[in-house]
Design brief:
With about 425 residues, the protein is of the alpha+beta class. It contains 15 helices and twelve strands. It folds into three domains: about 70 residues, no CATH class; about 110 residues, no CATH class; about 130 residues, 3-Layer(aba) Sandwich (Glutaredoxin). About 50% of the residues lie in helices and about 10% in strands. The strands form four sheets. Strands 7-10-9-8-11-12 form a six-stranded mixed β-sheet, covered by helices on one side. Strands 1-2 form a two-stranded antiparallel sheet. It has a two-stranded antiparallel ribbon with strand order 3-4. The longest helix is centred in the first third of the chain and has 32 residues. The N and C termini lie far apart (about 65 Å).
Length: about 425
């Protein structure tokens, strides 16, 4: 198997002979990292270089300690470093623990010689690790790969045990060339992006400071990627989803606006639609008006004076919810809103549910129990309302004031209910 960005592909396959002998081929386009995988075992990582004839002997791919690389200099260096580096890291953690003990414990605090010895040994281990990498032929793939792998794999250790190294590690991530084809063939692209932002998130900073640092990293990445349209789309799309998944919404909004406003590259339509939701529907903007249509549910309203569109609602605040019966999260979220509706309504908060269902019977069966307005045009993602509001996921919630300005983009019913309890209750008491 070979790596191509976030994906993998089959390079070659074969049937192993009765004596356990097999042979596989790869070509220039596979230059980078790859892995052997049998039907019943884990992957065995290899360096793929057309100038390197790799030979391995052993018992099972699933147990790499039983496998010996008998030919292939880059692979031998990779295997050696993969064995030695974790042991050095383990020793550094042990010495670090002792260093803290001699620095903080009154029983050891007065002894200077051990502290000096510990510092020297830590420095020796670091220099030995660096020397190994420096002495590799710089024209080989492994000379590029191993430092990147070291950076990515060291993130949890740095965050927990060597926090003084966080600024240097973050700087290394920022200075990476995300257009480098070697990165796309390394199998490390996903981990590089994830660990970069995980380290910032877990750096011990305040949340506001975390977002400032993430925005700086986004600036570095977008500036680097602006020259490569294809990779800009791939990496921006992956990073946007990652930030959304981790609920780092200030960073995902910054990314969206950065790409839409400052990048001249053409974005693919799916990515552009997701990013546009932040620009068109950001807090402070006026939300598009829409008619409720002829087929909608409005329990509790006087038929002679029922509002026919969003702007006709007389409430001080309106919650607009986009969802569907087929959405895994929507039923529970909407039932929570239904349970809270009476309390919200006392604070002059109205709710409008916009369904993405496609069948009339399904919509009415699902939404018929809700005490608030529910509408559906049965066009799912092609609905004019869904498109006008740039909705790309369900459930999606918006809180509007009586001028239809967006006040809040709640990420959950709980967040919205907290706003009602805190803000509106406070307003009422004043």
């Amino acid at each position: 198997m070979g790596f191509e960005g976030f994906d993998t592909y089959v390079i070659d396959s074969t049937q192993v002979g009765q004596q356990g002998v097999f042979q596989l081929s790869f070509g220039p386009k596979d230059y980078g990292m790859g892995y052997l995988v049998a039907e019943d075992s884990k992957a065995f990582i290899l360096v793929l270089d057309e100038n390197e004839n790799v030979k391995i002997e052993g018992e099972a791919l699933g147990f790499p300690e039983t496998v010996v690389i008998t030919s292939g200099k880059q692979n031998q260096l990779f295997a050696q470093y993969a064995t030695e580096h974790p042991r050095r890291e383990q020793a550094l953690r042990a010495w670090g623990y002792l260093a803290e003990m001699y620095k903080q414990d009154s029983l050891f605090l007065v002894h200077d010689n051990p502290k000096m010895t510990i510092a020297k040994e830590k420095q020796r281990i670091k220099e030995e690790d660096t020397a190994f990498l420096v002495n590799i032929n710089p024209r080989t793939y492994v000379s590029w790969f191993l430092p990147v792998r070291k950076l990515v794999s060291s993130v949890p250790t740095i965050a927990q045990y060597r926090t003084e190294e966080i600024p240097e590690a973050v700087a290394s991530f920022r200075n990476m060339d995300y257009t480098d084809p070697r990165l796309y063939k390394s199998g490390l692209l996903r981990e590089t992006i994830e660990n970069h932002f995980w380290l910032i998130e877990n750096s011990g900073r305040s949340l506001d400071s975390v977002f400032v640092e993430m925005n700086i990293s986004i600036d570095y990445m977008i500036e680097n990627l602006a020259s490569d349209e294809k990779k800009l789309n791939e990496i921006t799309g992956y990073l946007f989803k990652l930030l959304e998944k981790r609920s780092l919404f200030k960073a995902s909004e910054y990314l969206a606006l950065k790409v839409l406003n400052e990048v001249s590259c053409t974005l693919n339509s799916d990515l552009a639609a997701q990013l546009e939701s932040y620009r068109a529907m950001k807090v402070g903007n006026a939300a598009p008006d829409f008619e409720f249509g002829n087929d909608y549910l409005a329990p509790g309203y006087n038929p002679e004076n029922t509002p026919r569109k969003l702007s006709e609602l007389k409430s001080n605040y309106t919650v607009v919810v986009f969802g569907a019966s087929w959405c895994p999260q929507c039923p529970e979220e909407l039932l929570q809103i239904a349970r809270l509706y009476e309390k919200w309504n006392k604070h002059n908060v109205e709710v409008v549910y916009v369904s993405l269902d496609e069948e009339e019977e399904t919509f009415k069966s699902f939404a018929g129990v809700f005490p608030f307005i529910s509408i559906c045009d049965y066009e799912k993602w092609e609905s004019p309302v869904v498109k006008a509001w740039h909705v790309f996921a369900t459930p999606t919630l918006y809180l509007l004031n009586n001028n239809q300005e967006i006040l809040l983009k709640p990420r959950s019913v709980r967040q919205l209910d907290s706003w009602v309890d805190w803000y509106l209750a406070k307003q009422k008491s004043n």
